[in-house]
Amino acid sequence: MEPNSSSNDNNKMQLQHHSSCLEIATMEVHRVVPPRHKSTIEKLKTRLKETFFPDDPLRQFKGQPLGKKWILAAQYIFPILEWGPNYSFKLFKSDIISGLTIASLAIPQGISYAKLANLPPIVGLYSSFVPPLVYTVLGSSRDLAVGPVSIASLIMGSMLRQEVSPTQNPVLFLQLAFTATFFGGLVQASLGLLRLGFIIDFLSKATLIGFMAGAAIIVSLQQLKSLLGITHFTNQMGLIPVMSSVFHNTKEGTKRPKLFWVSAGAPLVSVILSTLLVFAFKAQHHGISVIGKLQEGLNPPSWNMLKFHGSHLGLVMKTGLITGIISLTEGIAVGRTFAALKNYQVDGNKEMIAIGVMNIVGSSTSCYITTGAFSRSAVNHNAGAKTAVSNVVMSVTVMVTLLFLMPLFQYTPNVVLGAIIVTAVVGLIDVPAAHQIWKIDKFDFLVMLCAFLGVIFISVQEGLAIAVGISIFKILLQITRPKTVMLGNMPGSDIYRDLHHYNEAMRIPGFLILSIEAPINFANTTYLNERILRWIEEYEAEENLNKQSSLRFVILEMSVLEKLQRSDDSGDFKRPDSLYLTVGEAVASLSSTIKAPSANYV
User: Fold this and answer.
1) Can you tell which superkingdom this protein's organism belongs to (predicted)?
2) Which own/partner pairs from 574-581 qualify as long-range (CB within 8 Å, at least 24 positions apart)?
């Protein structure tokens, strides 16, 4: 019974297949029309527009009178002119609350992150005063809170320290930091002006997650110097030298700070309480390391400290490039995240220009690299910020601190600053996101892992470079080795889908239908030629094995009509049986050229 049943099933499938082939053969076939001829200038113009101006920023000027165009241009360059005239006291009430809230976080973080970059603590406060004012005028995000960030601080400090000691030559180190900030801002603004924002897309989410997690661990381990009271600590950023330094200098930790238990959950409260305790008990004389006296007053000019010559020029340019790209990526990612939550748009190129200009201005006003910080922006968002005026409120609060409150920070213990840094960066370790990447794409997970391990065991910049290199390699692999799949017909339709994906899809006897799932270019033509020949060989070998009909036609599903016609010197593709609009029409037309099978074939 079973052999007969199997034979009947096969006959039914063949009958069904034959009937579908007859349906296909009656399908109307449309003529393939060549694309409209375009001059080289037209093609170049279209390509440049789609590459550099996909958002078509000039569309708002069409049909407007000259006066309106000037107003729109001013609003485009200075977004504050767009929302400023409609600003109200109701909005200000929300912004002043959020501004004071982020100032309470920005002041201790500014001091802490400056120390992380091996800079004087006062520079962190300077960097929380001028850049937010510049961003308010030029930025397009309502939620971005601007200031120093841990990752950029870590990278700048570790890279500059490779050639200059911040303790033995602090003035030169500060000059290099300001110069690197200038180059970082120049890179950022240039990317925006030249509409090259797509470059930062090479820093994929997987790369950033791995990089930030590794950097968070390194930053946290570096704070063991303050938390354990170790005096002689390594300047290297790798896991092994840091842990070696901890174990080899444990005797120095006998004077363990009495304030080790102070929580950094509320940074400003921790700073105030710890400062009062140190002052009251004179703890600085009993093994507690403190910040020391800080300079009062607003940012002094620093354009005379920028060094555009000398043996360290290459170092500051490289440092500026890396810190600029990293901080730009973080700032734009944060801005877009909160814009999506509030359903408004953030212009990426405007953000690049805004962040770049504020760093160029900052480098001349004693500031180091700044951007939109995630922790600060999250606090700003949750506190109810309505516009960028919250940055102005924060800046004014920092100004008051610089003018009148600096003596109060003299007794702030370094252990609390270390705890603040650890608390801030631990949130950068995003385990759920890593798990999600593992589920979606194993190769992206490998990229993330390389970034993580590279930062921990080699260095921050090398770890990042490795991850970016692997990401670019993946892109090149996808370009040079495009995926090709065999298509089959979905019964009862003219739809063709991947045979391995859809079990109900059926082969058409005598046809090999392939879909090339990538653009064809010089880098993959050789591979595709070899891969298609192998498909043909495998198909014919399988047909000989199963004693089925021989291969008659190979159909390639792709969209390269213009290039095919240009390269068609022999006129092969001008024949009516060479080009079709759809796979279904190709099969229908070509099937009609095959002699219909007799009834006893089924």
Assistant:
1) Eukaryota
2) 576/31, 579/32, 580/29, 580/32, 581/30, 581/32
Query: Residue written as tokens 């009947």?
Result: 8
Half-sphere exposure of 340 (CA within 13 A, CB side): 6
What pLDDT, on the 0 to 100 scale, is given for residue 566? 66
399 near 131, Cβ under 8 Å? no
The pair of three-digit structure tokens given for residue 475, joined into one six-digit string: 């892109």
Q: Does the pLDDT at position 3 exceed 70?
A: no
Which residue in 184, 187, 96 sits closest to 148, CA to CA?
A: 184
Structure tokens at 446: 């490998």
Closest CA to 457 of 242, 305, 264, 309: 242
Amino acid 266: pLDDT = 53
Task: Report the chain's C-alpha Rg in angstroms.
Answer: 32
Could you tell me which residues come within 8 angstroms of residue 478 by beta carbon, excluding any fewer than 6 positions away? Answer: 518
pTM: 0.73
Q: What is the pLDDT of residues 38-61, one digit of tens each?
A: 788 887 888 777 777 777 777 777
Q: Which residue has the higher pLDDT, 124 or 463?
A: 124
Q: Confidence class of residue 137 from pLDDT cuts 50, 70 and 90?
A: very high
Q: DSSP E strands: which ranges in 420-536?
A: 484-489, 496-498, 511-516
Burial state string for 444-476 with b = 16 or more CB within 10 A and e = fewer than 16: bbbbbbbbbbbbbebbbbebbebbbebbeebee
State the pLDDT confidence band at 233, using cuts at 50, 70 and 90.
Answer: low
Q: Which DSSP string do the residues of 522-575 spell out, in sequence order?
A: TTTHHHHHHHHHHHHHHHHHHHHHHT-PPP-EEEEE---HHHHHHT-TT-GGGS
Helix (H) or strand (E) holding 372: strand 371-372
Phi, psi of 512 (to 5 degrees): -115, 110
pLDDT at 418 > cutoff 80: no
53-62, 160-169, 398-407: range with lowest mean pLDDT: 53-62
The token pair that represents 21 in the structure block:
């082939």
Of 73, 56, 55, the residue nearest 64 (C-alpha): 73
3-class DSSP string for 80-110: HHHHHHHCCHHHHHHHHHHHHHHHHHHHHHH
How many whole angstroms separate alpha carbon 42 and alpha carbon 34? 17
Q: Tell me: pLDDT of 37 over 80.
A: no
Specify the pairing of strand 371-372 against strand 146-147.
antiparallel
pLDDT value at 265 more than 50: no
Place of tokens 């982020």: 102
Residue pLDDT, tens place only, 307-355:
998 889 999 999 999 999 988 888 888 888 788 778 888 888 888 999 9
**DSSP classification of residue 490:** P
Task: Find all residues with CB under 8 Å of 557, minimum gap 6, and list them.
Answer: 487, 496, 513, 514, 515, 516, 583
Contact 421, 267 (CB under 8 A): no
CA nearest neighbour of 109 among 424, 429, 427, 426? 424
